[in-house]
């Protein structure tokens, strides 16, 4: 059954709500958990579910995403497995960019249908979760459905941010509303005793879909003016097709903005995190790097995740994620922070030359204080720099950093001279 499934992962749009992390990269290419990229999550979920044929549809700032996929997902020459990139392209039929999720699949359909499959699994490239898709596809087949939508129970507070569905006793979806602001009481569903005890009474679409092959081809061809699955294609399909709700009750979060991204990363440092990176049944695959182990000197660590190749001399690192090749100087304190690390090490000669000129090195210098912050890759933060994010800071976008919801985001490759205070 799984051999009849083809995966399609949507690379997303401009990702402006996740800016400045998306100024030079697409959302799925944003580093997460210190050593992965967001796109590794849906790809790994597919591989763990036995789905070994995938397309990734890319468009905005796609160079780093394309490079990551090319350098990461290699399979045997004797295998039919692949993770291929389908970039937006001009053709005789389509002269423009992707206009939405459905339009992206429509424009790439001539590449997709050249492969044999009965079912197509459409995923987002910017969500954090661990799901076995085999069960979802089995339920789809058993119900003789034409579409299956993965749904997750949410609270009334969260319901206003999602597409909300209603299903009958057979879990067939009967109605849909996009981000309801009023009349929520009409959209309460029977989500089960456990979910209801947590106040999660509404079924939200997770943006994860299974389509029958011929049904998807037909529905995309019927109304070419419909550009988006969630807002246009699915509401119409619910009226005259068999659309199944597959309820998922595990951890899932949509990395839609800086605060949700920040919360998801720091949540990984919990004693028992909601997203379990240490589950051997749900391996997260990523690029294999030949990095040395991390070296830590004189540092108190508390609730910290430290990736490979770090050199840490800080006095304290608490509730923080340190990405690959992160360097932190002496007597520095890092709390409530995601330090993404860097793409390379500086040589001893470079370090001596930069130090003699009084320039900041790649990484974080001595005697710094970093709190409520995201430090993007390849930043140079000098000595005695103080970054203290919080509600006291107004949102804003500046030359070397931005503030969103009180979180200070130092931009990729930015230089903060010694003594800088934010």
From TrEMBL:
MF GO annotations: glucose-1-phosphate adenylyltransferase activity
| UniProt-listed Enzyme Commission number(s) | 2.7.7.27
Give the UniProt keywords, A-Z: ATP-binding, Carbohydrate metabolism, Glycogen metabolism, Nucleotide-binding, Nucleotidyltransferase, Transferase
The record, for PROSITE patterns, names: ADP_GLC_PYROPHOSPH_1, ADP_GLC_PYROPHOSPH_2, ADP_GLC_PYROPHOSPH_3
Which residues does UniProt call coiled coil? none
Give every Nucleotidyl transferase domain span. 7-270
Q: Which CDD domains match?
A: ADP_Glucose_PP (cd02508), LbH_G1P_AT_C (cd04651)
Q: Cross-referenced NCBIfam families, in alphabetical order?
A: glgC, PRK02862.1
Write down the PANTHER family for this protein, in alphabetical order. Answer: GLUCOSE-1-PHOSPHATE ADENYLYLTRANSFERASE LARGE SUBUNIT 1, CHLOROPLASTIC-RELATED, GLUCOSE-1-PHOSPHATE ADENYLYLTRANSFERASE-RELATED
Task: Give the protein family.
Answer: Belongs to the bacterial/plant glucose-1-phosphate adenylyltransferase family.
According to UniProt, the name of this protein is: Glucose-1-phosphate adenylyltransferase
Give the organism the record lists: Pedobacter jamesrossensis
Task: Specify the taxonomic lineage.
Answer: Bacteria, Pseudomonadati, Bacteroidota, Sphingobacteriia, Sphingobacteriales
């Amino acid at each position: 059954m799984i051999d009849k499934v083809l995966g399609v992962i949507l690379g997303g749009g401009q990702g402006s709500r996740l800016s400045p992390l998306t100024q030079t990269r697409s959302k799925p290419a944003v580093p997460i958990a210190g050593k992965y990229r967001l796109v590794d999550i849906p790809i790994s979920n597919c591989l763990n579910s036995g789905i070994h044929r995938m397309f990734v549809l890319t468009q905005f700032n796609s160079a780093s995403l394309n490079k990551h996929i090319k350098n990461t997902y290699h399979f045997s020459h004797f295998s039919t497995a692949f993770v291929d990139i389908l970039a937006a392209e001009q053709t005789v039929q389509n002269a423009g960019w992707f206009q939405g999720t459905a339009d992206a699949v429509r424009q790439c359909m001539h590449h997709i249908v050249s492969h044999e499959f009965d079912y197509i699994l459409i995923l987002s490239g910017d969500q954090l979760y661990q799901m076995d898709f085999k069960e979802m596809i089995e339920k789809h087949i058993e119900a003789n459905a034409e579409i299956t939508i993965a749904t997750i129970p949410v609270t009334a507070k969260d319901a206003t941010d999602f597409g909300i569905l209603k299903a009958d006793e057979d879990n067939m979806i009967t109605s849909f509303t996009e981000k309801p602001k009023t009349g929520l009481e009409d959209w309460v569903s029977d989500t089960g005793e456990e979910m209801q005890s947590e106040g999660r009474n509404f079924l939200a679409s997770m943006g994860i879909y299974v389509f029958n092959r011929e049904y998807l081809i037909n529905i995309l061809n019927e109304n070419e003016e419909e550009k988006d699955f969630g807002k246009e294609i699915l509401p119409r399909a619910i009226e005259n097709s068999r659309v199944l709700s597959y309820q998922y009750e595990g951890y899932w979060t949509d990395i839609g903005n800086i605060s949700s991204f920040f919360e998801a990363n720091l949540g990984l440092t919990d004693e028992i995190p909601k997203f379990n990176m240490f589950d051997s049944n749900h391996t997260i695959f990523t690029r294999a790097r030949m990095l040395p182990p991390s070296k830590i000197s004189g540092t108190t660590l508390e609730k910290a995740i430290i990736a490979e190749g770090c050199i840490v001399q800080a006095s304290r690192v608490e509730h923080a994620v340190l990405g690959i090749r992160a360097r932190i100087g002496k007597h520095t304190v890092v709390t409530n922070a995601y330090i993404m690390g860097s793409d390379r090490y500086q040589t001893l000669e470079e370090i001596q030359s930069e130090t003699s000129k009084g320039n900041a090195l790649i990484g974080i210098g001595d005697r710094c204080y970093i709190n409520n912050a995201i430090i993007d890759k390849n930043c140079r933060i000098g000595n005695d720099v103080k970054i203290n994010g919080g509600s006291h800071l107004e949102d804003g976008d500046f030359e070397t950093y931005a503030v969103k919801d009180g979180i200070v985001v130092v931009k990729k490759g930015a230089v903060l001279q010694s003594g800088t205070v934010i």
